[in-house]
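Protein data:
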Amino acid sequence: MIRAALRTGLFSLALALWATAGLAASFKATVEKPPTDQGDTFELVLSVIGRDSLEPPNIAPLNKDFEILDRGKRSRMESLNGRMVEVNEWVLTLAPKRAGHLVIPALTLGSETSAPIEMNVAPGSTAEPPDDGPIALSVDVLGTPPFYLQSEIPVVVRMYDRVGALEASADQPAADGATFTPDGALKRFSRIYGRQRYRVVELRYIMRPQRTGTIQISSVALRASIPTSPPGAQEQARALGRPAMPWLGGGFDSGRKVTVFANPVEVTILPRPTGVTGWFLPARAVRLKETWSSPPAKAKVGVALTRTLRLEVQGASPAQLPPLKPAETDGVRQYADEEHPEAAQVGGAPGAIAEVHISVVPTRAGSITLPAITVPWWNITTNRAETAQLPPVTLQVAGAADHAGITPPPAPAAKSAPKPQATPADDDAPLPWRDIAAIALVVVIIASFLLFSGRRAGRRASALPQPPERPVVAPPARPGRPTPPRPAVRRPRVIAPDERAAAGAVEAACKAGHATAAYRAYLDWNRASGPGHAGTASVRTPAMAAALHEVSRHLYAGEGDTWDGRGFRSAFAAERKAALKPTKARTARGLAPLYPKAR
């Protein structure tokens, strides 16, 4: 009993330490669709991962530079490190109180603190009702001119309601020479203008101009039903903290139908500047960065290196970013994955980022130079052409252990130096000491638990008496029917491999340099990773296909040299990450009504 309780406690402690190491810094703050100018609203999401909190975060520091218009909470499930965890989020709708450099301060949730977020808010007209009527409508163009052809211009339609409309719906903006697409879900919040409290409904669109010159967004109509109660009755009800009372005017169906119009808006679209050819990228700032999974100076023939290119553009939309494609180079094979540009804060201002991962596999030894990567763009602040550039990269490629099918380097005159041994720093960045200690303790506890359980099970098995073998008696034959012969060979029950155990076997074989064990463990993992996968025909990434090709040549070439599994391990990590990505299903999007119909 005591030993069983001790095993249970040790196992629970190991799981707790593992969860603590994986969910460190679980409280964070992110901004969804940052504001383009002072009159724009945005959402701040405060999320906690792996748990829930009955006490909400302390949001009082936000009142200095932002007006809190609305707040809510939501929950969802998310895949983290191969397992599903709960994510709880507090969603705040904020409006900047002023233009300039603003900072969302560090917010606290219990003992945890989020990182501050900096942003630059451009001057703009403050969103206010166009008139003092019971219900009003406005159309505003966000962003700072100039606007060029192929730009994505955000447009927001706002309804201001101070009488409690029973129902309302507005037309989609339209213009000759531009298209409009809904952008995001409808937002509702309350806000005070002067001495009146309004319920504000926002619906955003993306305007894409199809020609240059002046484009006029035509007047948008809003059709609503407002209550017909006596003058001042609704205001008195709200002053007393009561809901709207449409029955004061003589029944629930006594709403009065009204139609209001928003003023037309003109947008000037500039043509492409003279002399600019190729991909046109108007922006305020562009930065191009790169990182490598291992130093290019330590490249080897047949071993894949991962090169990550990141493009950060301020003042542009995701659709305007050019593709990041490496140039073909003799001596290397390059496989680029698909880009997914997305809107983000760049330098404290709205912009877009794009990131692409490229598997670089050298095919010969020696010095190989990858050409420079350039991204031309148009600076809309200085009104001139500029270029963001990454310098050329030189790979110093060493010979591989397996030379089959690969152009061999020149034979050295003397005995070649021994191959350098792999070090932990070549594979991954150093972990924090707290994570290392926690992981080491988990490994020790689990190993001790398994060793203790195995020995005890062995002692129990040896102490039990073995049952005597019983003779196999054939069933009696039926009259007129021959006795069916018993099969001479019994087929054992096939046990499907475990995905995590197979992945661990791949890692262990790569670290030990056992090519055969790594290949067999990968096949087990591939069968366990999902239905319909068998062998090498179901690889998901080009890097894994190249790694399987290289290990196959090593296994069947008959060479006696040792095998370096770092490239196979890196490709397997990318393959395992790709297997976790869910398939995105397309869902139909419909235009929701501006205001729900009252019941």
